[in-house]
């Protein structure tokens, strides 16, 4: 069963070392030698694609050389899965397809994609059995075990940076554009990034008259019968998206260096009790922290709660996603504050 601690917390910890082939259960939705058709409604057969050889440097300074843009792409993290779909390239293999469908609704996986198991421990038999011409991964340092493990195989590996609290929006678009270069979809990427920038500008205008601009976004889970909360602080993607459209992220507690994520409990929210609260609307199958949070008398006493300024984002809004997830988040901020 998918749990938030496995699904949402996974991006903020180093990926576990990959296990030997065949040790992680995997399934094939509808295995086929032909690459699945891209499912995005915006994608057409005439999406502009380069045919020239590809020579690029990935997020960790590794040189990646391809005789032609990658067509059969395997992806081991959800942001990058979303990205290839936005670029109108359907992956031949992904990690944790069920989890992706639960937490990320920005782009729908088409039929025919091989599921290679978990993101931290993919099944290598299934991964390379899908015959990819490129494997896209998320890493945190040039020495990540996942890079070293996959480099042993005769398939190019494109390593993208998981997060950068110095500029999370730029890191997100850099990752997207890097994947576009590897798949020959630079023109498509340029259009998508322009759409994101337009969405940010439109949202800024839509929120210009909003008076209560202080906010905190958080998710959470149930741990030992208690509610644990994770505020998205300074340097987080959700925080920076909010600030880019005129809001003020008031969570200034200690956060991790990569994702800008903090840790607290319900009582800890007292420090920002006057702010508007936003939280994930995706329900963790292992337990709904929101139900338990709303039973707490301290939480119910906060001004944001008493005044109806606690808002759930639409389910499936992935807080670590690509440009399309970012647009979903921006639209949610606007809709919830102007409804």
Automatic annotation (TrEMBL):
Signal peptide from the UniProt entry: 1-26
Domain Fe/B12 periplasmic-binding: start-end pairs: 72-339
Name assigned to this protein: Iron-siderophore ABC transporter substrate-binding protein
InterPro entries xrefs: ABC_transptr_periplasmic_BD, Bact_iron-sidero_bind
Location of region: Disordered: 27-60
Coiled-coil region: 179-213
Cellular component terms (Gene Ontology): outer membrane-bounded periplasmic space
UniProt-listed GO biological process terms: iron coordination entity transport
UniProt keyword terms in alphabetical order: Coiled coil, Signal, Transport
Similarity-based family: Belongs to the bacterial solute-binding protein 8 family.
Keyword Signal applies: yes
Subcellular location: Cell envelope
